[in-house]
Amino acid sequence: MRSAVTNDAARDRSQGAAFPVVTVVTPSFNQGAFIEETIKSVLTQAGDFVLDYLIIDGGSTDQTLEIVRRYDRLIASKELPLACRGTRFRWVSEKDRGQSDAIVKGMSRAEGTILAWLNSDDLFEDGAVGRAVAAFRDHPSAAVVYGGSVYIDETGQTVGRYPAEPFDRKRLAVANFISQPSAFFSRAAYEKCGGVDVAFRYTMDYDLWIRLTQHGSFVYLPEDLSRFRLHDASKTVFPRYALENHRECLATVRRYYGWAPLNRVAAYAYQVVRNALPASCTHSLAVTVLLSLPVAAAHYLWYNKRIRIDDLKMLTPANIRKLRNMERLWV
Question: pTM of this prediction?
């Protein structure tokens, strides 16, 4: 693994980490169009902490490695102004088994007591790491600190807002209101819960949040900590990923809660029908929704064996609007 270390970072570690060490892992593969912005958003974070930044690349063939090597040189030569107490920049490029595998590889090499991962097309807001560090200082028993996030497009223009909200474990079954690039977690809690599960391709963050609820509190910061990029190649918005994403979500909720929430089943049924219809029919939202209703009803009763009161309570206009907004990327 290649690395560049500032003198301040080395000194802080040798003195027993006088300042908290924050590890940020960026899994990467052929994101040369965006990764420089991502790197800058991490390395320009300011505050009383030591930054341990790892880029785990899956063997990119575009301009990604050229960009990474340039920042390695800039940090090693101290040509890049840094605003935190010290920085260690490390990277590796080799074939891996995908995003989850890259995250696990990075976390296994982490030096921080506070951990996060930032995908190679997303960005931290200025001051995000410092605010997370302050929140962990104020809430030492916290497993996770998370904030809001805005959606941006390929050009960086804001196109929406992630529907983050204060923490409620039961509510987490219905909606993943924790924006992954705005979430920081304690190393102790991460290790106790077993870390990221490499079996997940799409919802590794959602699975992790649920398991982390057993190992500390969740602290919500009502401010934006990241910018979540949506583009045609993103797993978040690319249509062919939608069915598998919803299947993973539904399986995860059933595993930990023993319950299949109505909105989860309905979203999954919609994608099942959408994928089964001829392409000429999927342009009609009304037709797809109508055909998915009996599929959703059958799956809901099969999973739950009854109609749950919690699901009936969820059928309020405000809730439906919010849940519909959270699903809007998939339809």
Answer: 0.91
